[in-house]
Write a structure and sequence with these properties.
It catalyses: Endonucleolytic cleavage to nucleoside 3'-phosphates and 3'-phosphooligonucleotide end-products. By secondary structure, the protein is α+β, with helices and mostly antiparallel strands. It has 6 helices and 19 strands. Strands 11, 12, 13, 14, 15, 16, 17, 18 and 19 form a 9-stranded mixed sheet that branches.
Length: 349
């Protein structure tokens, strides 16, 4: 082997360790520990309507929200970048993936028999990502390539992607048993079945083992950031925010979720830690009402908690019977980005 060839081979190996690894990706396609996306609604206050495809972007290397120069339906977008690796290598027997959504693509139907949850896992025996989002009919089947549904344009939507080392996916699999996700596409090759039996059970639609009402998992990202995952099963028949999350996090919570007219839950204050309903979101030169927002998130009311949680479930009566969950962090950058967006919320009567 010539010296020049050896140098080229080593250079390629080093390059591939970075570019070929499975992870969340920024808009330049570079590996990133985590990112958050807030897709803006089409209708805003005192503005002409947008396209419904603009979004805000925040990641582990940025200083705060930035309006992306891309649209969310582009492959250059954060969601496009992270899903491209899955779409180009989903047939590889050395990788595993699972895509779930209670409102899957290729149909206008949705099922209440499954958890109100939406997300994608993709990993190998080194690491991978868990993408959690609020977008119905998304993402497309891998063989269809990346795209964004027209139904996802009207309302605001959120997504969070976190990169995890392989050993964390056993915990994630157990959490997903509580979520009871509607899996519409997956592949868990044989080499993962001993480690990830729960994920295989979910993927193949086998009978689930018994689960309790709730479960909390402590997850650590690939770069060491701590996250808490709250997983609620169908046996926990109550508002996840009021009856559980606020009391565990020791924090009053401001909640922003989809609330169909006539089904809103009011702010709730009987318990030690209170839950308040956000009514309006604001950024410099941009604001919108909660009824135009399909995102699901909550943030501590005051800095003493500094929690921000992004996930699956809404605050309205029917959701008390649905399973799903939230990923929470005290990462100051994410907390401040969301906390500063709260323009108005209702006090308890």
């Amino acid at each position: 082997m010539s010296q020049v060839y050896l140098i080229l081979l080593l250079s390629w190996s080093a390059f591939c360790l970075v570019t070929c690894e499975i992870s969340c990706r920024n808009e330049a396609g570079e590996p990133i520990d985590w990112f958050v996306v807030y897709k803006l609604p089409k209708y805003r206050i005192n503005e002409t309507k947008g396209t419904g495809l603009e979004y805000l972007y925040l990641d582990s290397r940025s200083q705060g929200w930035q309006v992306s120069k891309f649209l969310i339906n582009m492959t250059q977008s954060a969601l496009g970048q992270v899903l491209q690796r899955l779409y180009t290598s989903y047939k590889n027997d050395s990788t595993a993936y699972m895509i779930y959504n209670d409102s899957p693509p290729r149909t206008s139907n949705f099922s209440t028999h499954y958890g109100h949850s939406k997300g994608t896992l993709f990993f190998d025996q080194h690491q991978g990502f868990w993408l959690i989002h609020s977008i119905p009919h998304f993402p497309p089947f891998p063989e269809d390539g990346f795209g964004y549904p027209d139904t996802g344009k009207l309302f605001g939507q959120t997504a969070i992607c976190v990169t995890y080392k392989y050993f964390q996916f056993k915990q994630i699999a157990t959490q997903l048993l509580y979520y009871n996700p509607n899996v519409y596409n997956c592949s868990i090759p044989d080499l993962y079945q001993e480690d990830l039996l729960d994920l295989c059970t979910i993927c193949h639609g086998k009978r689930f083992p018994w689960v309790d009402e709730t479960r909390i998992a402590v997850l650590r990202s690939a770069e060491g950031e701590l996250f808490l995952n709250f997983a609620k099963s169908k046996y926990f028949v109550d508002d996840i925010f009021t009856a559980w999350m606020a009391q565990v996090l020791d924090s009053d919570l401001l909640t922003e979720t989809w609330q169909p007219k006539g089904k809103e839950l009011p702010s709730n204050c009987p318990l030690r830690w209170h839950v308040y309903t956000i009514r309006r979101i604001a950024l410099p030169n941009l604001s919108f009402y909660s009824h135009n927002d399909h995102s699901k998130w909550c943030v501590s009311r005051a800095y003493n908690g500094s929690w921000i949680c992004i996930g699956d479930l809404n605050r309205y009566p029917e959701q008390r019977w649905r399973s799903g969950g939230f990923i929470c962090t005290q990462k100051e950058l994410i907390f401040k980005a969301f906390w500063r967006m709260v323009a108005y919320y209702t006090e308890c009567k």
